[in-house]
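ok so for the tutorial part 2 we go from a plain amino acid sequence to predicted structure tokens. step 1 is just haveing the sequence, like this:
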Amino acid sequence: MPNEREKDALVICPTDPVYVIDRVRYVDQKLFSYEHTIMPTAVMPITEDILHGSIYAALRAHGISIAGSHRTVYAIKATATDVKAIGAKRNDPVLVIQQVSYTIEGEPFEFSESHFPYQTASVTADVELDPRQPAK
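step 2 — the prediction. this is what the tokens look like for a chain of 136 residues:
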């Protein structure tokens, strides 16, 4: 069952069952990140085969159109979970991306946190300014 934060983020009842998905991601056989994802079971059945591939591809194949995500990016000191999952040393800096993802209908379907060791962490943002707007 979801905790209070998960329930609020996903706009579900405290009695709605959820999947709890913990995965370590690798890029080019190198550890990249740890993901902790909460998804209501009502979204779709998730099998072990789906977990070994792309959950988003499975959602699309299930007829779910993904609109996007609201993300918050911040840094923390490595937790005991980070030590175990991504090989961080206790209190090392860890980049966290917390997100709520939405369907095209505006329904939240995923609440997740991805933890990146500082060695693989970076954030790139493109910021466009409207040149027609006066400076303040």
